[in-house]
């Protein structure tokens, strides 16, 4: 009989495009992902992905299988989360969605102090908005508003997207170009450097590039790592560039481990929102988490409060 975890792993590979991305989203090892995939391929009797470099490209049969199992899997996951809530009457369970880096820099340090149960979910913002609307998530932290009339958004801070580099990057030559030459020369200089990106999301880089140069970057990062915090740690080696939210690297810049290379001709800022349903049974727990976020923001003073 087929193991349902094989299907979950298959779905994760399909959505992330890499074995590493699937492993990160499922919180299992990459060898475990590979084992699940090979077991499922052996069970169904055909290849589900073609391996092209680091990317996993679904075969035609893989696409057919995904279309067949995606919706049933989503429904089972919804049932699992809602059942878990309904069976825990004494201690409430709150499900919160946000990006991995935001969790690490804000809420992670307070998890052990919470007087209620907590499920943290990482995902793309459209998916989290949909899960919030359906009642799977109770609170999300997002830079994007949804359109559902059932959801209310509360702005609580903002983040600036900046270009940073290792401490050994030659910023003097770059600043000369910025002050004496046009954006075309700035772009040429930047493209000569080594770049870092993440496996799942290039949105910050795309937004920054479009705002300053009028088009998406026509190059791929040299090094693809799991998340933005990994980029910060890699840049501390001394070289390379990346576009990241300012709050993730404030301390490293102040300590001299990283350099603020450029804020851009125009500053790129994202407003951060709390998103929750207008009707909820967990208002006190949600308010508690909101208070922790505000505490961290106030203590570190790393974003502009609204």
UniProtKB/TrEMBL annotation:
Keywords: DNA-binding, Transcription, Transcription regulation. GO terms for molecular function: DNA-binding transcription factor activity; transcription cis-regulatory region binding. PROSITE patterns: HTH_LYSR. Residues 2-59 form the HTH lysR-type domain. InterPro entries: LysR_HTH_N, LysR_subst-bd, WH-like_DNA-bd_sf, WH_DNA-bd_sf. Pfam families: HTH_1, LysR_substrate. Belongs to the LysR transcriptional regulatory family. PANTHER family: HTH-TYPE TRANSCRIPTIONAL REGULATOR, HTH-TYPE TRANSCRIPTIONAL REGULATOR GLTR. This is Gcv operon activator. It comes from Chryseobacterium carnipullorum. The lineage of its organism: Bacteria, Pseudomonadati, Bacteroidota, Flavobacteriia, Flavobacteriales. The gene is gcvA.
